[in-house]
Amino acid sequence: MTKGVLVDIPKCLGCESCSVACKLWNDLSWDPEQKVKTAKDRAKEPNKGLWPNDWTSINFYGLEKEGSPAWRFVKTQCLHCEEPACVSACFSKALQKLPEGPVIYDQNLCVGCRYCMLACPFNIPKFQWKKVIPGIRKCQMCPTRISNGEAPACTSVCPTGALTFGEREELLAEAKKRIKENGYIDRIFGEKEAGGTGWLYISDVPFEQMDFRTDVTTKPLPSYTEEYMKVTPIVGVSWAAILAGLYVYFNKGKEPLE
């Protein structure tokens, strides 16, 4: 059985302990201009999203619930799909899905094609545009911790219980229980989206109001991409051979430049 994380959105206070833990565990660099922001500060600025060195972020939403103001904080990171489109789109095998659940990335195998960025329906993988030898960056779900029976770094430090790590099937049962007990929206985001994801979300306000991709198909995305991606290396090699042949043909008999 694969592991996953249940995110109980109403319990999140936006403290960003998870973001700090993520950076410390994964040795990610800090933005020197970044400072600690209060809830009022966050309300005045747009949501920052993800960056190559920010594998997780907390986005703020000022909403209304039953006619009264309501603040909601949403943790954002790779959703670790059950059947990830990014893996099926990666012909170099730099992205792999582990049996335990994490979708991991090996930069040594990456060719920089960025097909994974195009394939991901949640806009998660980010490219290191400023690097001399760039790669893709995203949450790895702390695979070494999970293989040792530990929770991901972010979930282990959550002070409010907004993040629960465990077996995905057990988390789905817990999510349905909380929805019934707390009067939440009758939907588990990630249960079926893109064929199902490892990170599951429950909420007391509609997901559409918090920029969730609620229009994503429930069909596993690799079923759309695998047949096309099988021919990508063949096409690449074929074009290289054609261009080499054209070069030889048009330069045949010409004197080499000194």
Describe the protein in words:
The chain is α+β, with helices and mostly antiparallel strands. It has one domain (1-11, 76-250): Alpha-Beta Plaits. It is 30% helix and 17% strand. It contains nine helices and nine strands. It has helices at 17-26, 39-43, 85-89, 115-119, 143-147, 153-156, 168-182, 222-229, 232-251; strands spanning 3-8, 57-65, 68-76, 95-97, 103-105, 126-127, 136-137, 163-167, 199-202. The strands form four sheets. Strands 8-1-9 form a three-stranded mixed beta sheet. The chain has a two-stranded antiparallel ribbon with strand order 2-3. Strand 2 (57-65) and strand 3 (68-76) form a beta hairpin. The longest helix has 20 residues, at 232-251. It is globular, with a radius of gyration of 22 Å. The mean pLDDT is 85.
SSE layout:
Blueprint: E1 3-8, H1 17-26, H2 39-43, E2 57-65, E3 68-76, H3 85-89, E4 95-97, E5 103-105, H4 115-119, E6 126-127, E7 136-137, H5 143-147, H6 153-156, E8 163-167, H7 168-182, E9 199-202, H8 222-229, H9 232-251
Parallel strand pairs: 1-9
Antiparallel strand pairs: 1-8, 2-3, 4-5, 6-7
